[in-house]
Write a structure and sequence with these properties.
12 helices; six-stranded mixed beta sheet; 473 residues; single chain; alpha+beta
Length: 473
């Protein structure tokens, strides 16, 4: 985070209550295999001014009050958790600094993975920032860790857009905004106030649902064939969305149990990856996924293991222009990735067909519909159910459109922004974030499953090189 451009952030994460889906992610945090934290590692061209960085965090957390809110859980999980202002909030509890020893990128990534792996401080807002000094070449880095209940990838980009500066020099500062009032909650008052709210709104909800039932009944009478057809289409869609990919997990990656993590990074030009996807009739996202599958094929071949398909998962954004900033609006789609297909053009086309079909599924948002019921389960049941849903895939991949311009952090230019998404029960989570014309790719993987880091990095690099060759055709 850096000097804000003066854009008000009170609408970012404005809702006090978590959605049921966010509540599920928060409560599943108790098990390392189902944690939902994410991290961002920004590489800086020089060491920023510490006092300026601290002051910037103070201003940004005032402009975006959600960053000063702690999470309150109800005494009984009949309602989702909620955010309540941390009256003892201190930037010093969330922003720290450290100096590297050797200053290598490997040392930085190992440090970032250890930050990612440790739990948040109980009773405090679920984020932390770390300035890392002493990176080779006179550079530095900033590590930002946030819990997924605060926002998804698109919400993170919205936050960065508001928080980062476009100039190296300090920008004129508006007066620090006063913090808006916040409802003070504890585990008992949260439960009682939300149950009272539900009881108060029950008559209106009943009337709305009754009206919907009457309208549906009328439509059934006048157009029975259409109603039955819609129901059958949704049922078939529901079965496709909820069913795991019809392939077994890779035997080479079977050692994954989610308790450890290791980070590696890769960078490609956005224009080159986009051109490669276009040359094969796909998008930059299709090219990204095809390159990953090509890398996984090479990794398996290195160890003499042949795999034709790998079960993989993709987040599908459900955001619309009317959605508020921050928060979470996404669904999951699972796919049998054609890892054994040697032709990158064929892989891109197969991925393109699946992604377009997944986005058009009528039941794509079914997990949001199920979340209210799941969120009321006992924690051990909720964690087990979450693990059973996520652990059927070998890896997950996410592509996030990021900032299209150069940004600055307390006087230092940001040269790269490497994202590391949560890795719930899979061998690897791969996240790509575009920044200033580059695709910054972060691999968060389980070293018990992917045991040779050097070979894995090499294979992934070759997978992207193979796809990038398409732009020349």
């Amino acid at each position: 985070m850096a000097e804000s451009n003066g854009t008000p952030g009170t609408e970012w994460g404005a809702s006090t209550d978590m959605t049921p889906w966010e509540g599920v992610m928060w409560r599943a945090e108790v098990d390392p295999a189902t944690r939902s934290s994410g991290a961002l590692v920004e590489i800086l061209d020089c060491e920023p001014d510490w006092d300026r960085l601290v002051a910037a965090h103070e201003r940004v957390t005032r402009a975006i009050p959600r960053l000063r809110d702690r999470v309150v859980e109800p005494i009984v999980p009949l309602v989702p958790p909620a955010f309540s202002r941390d009256e003892k909030f201190d930037v010093g509890n969330h922003l720290h600094r450290i100096r590297l020893g050797s200053g290598t990128m490997r040392e930085l990534l190992d440090l970032a993975s250890s930050v990612y792996d440790r739990p948040f401080q109980p009773g405090r807002p679920p984020w932390e920032g770390l300035l890392v000094e002493g990176l080779e070449g006179g550079r530095a880095a900033y590590v930002l860790k946030m819990h997924h209940s605060l926002t998804d990838g698109q919400g993170l980009v919205q936050l960065l857009t508001m928080a980062h500066s476009r100039t190296r020099e300090p920008t004129p500062r508006d007066p620090e905004p006063p913090l808006p009032p916040s409802e003070q909650l504890n585990s008992v008052t949260l439960l009682t106030s939300r149950l009272l709210r539900q009881a108060t709104s029950a008559p209106a909800m009943f009337l709305n649902r009754a009206g919907e039932s009457v309208r549906l009944a009328g439509r059934t009478i006048t157009r029975p064939t259409a109603v039955i057809g819609d129901g059958l289409r949704y049922t078939r869609s529901l079965m496709r969305v909820l069913s795991p990919p019809p392939v077994e997990r890779s035997p080479l990656l079977a050692g994954s149990h989610g308790s450890q993590c290791r980070f590696v990074v890769l960078e490609v030009a956005l224009a080159d990856l986009k051109a490669a996807g276009k040359a094969a009739g796909g998008s930059v996202n299709d090219a990204f996924l095809a390159a990953l599958l090509g890398g996984f094929r090479r990794y398996h071949e290195h160890f003499g293991v042949q795999v034709d398909f790998m079960p993989m998962a993709l987040p599908i954004s459900l955001r619309t222009a009317d959605d508020p900033a921050g928060g979470n609006r996404f669904a999951g789609a699972r796919f049998a990735g054609p890892v054994g297909e040697p032709d990158p053009r064929e892989r891109i086309q197969a991925i393109r067909e699946f992604v377009l079909s997944a986005r058009a599924e009528p039941a794509i948002g079914v997990l949001e519909m199920l979340a209210p019921a799941v969120s009321r389960l006992p924690t051990f049941v909720l964690v087990g159910l979450t693990a059973s849903v996520t652990s059927v895939s070998d890896f997950q991949a996410s592509n996030i459109p990021g900032l299209g311009h150069t940004a600055y952090l307390a006087g230092a230019q940001i040269t790269h922004t490497f994202p590391f998404g949560p890795r719930p029960g899979v061998a690897a989570m791969v996240t790509m974030l575009s920044y200033d014309g580059n695709c910054c790719i972060g691999f968060n993987f389980d070293p018990d499953a992917i045991t040779d880091t050097d070979v894995f990095e090499t294979c992934m690099g070759e997978g992207f090189d193979e796809v990038l060759e398409l732009r020349k055709t």
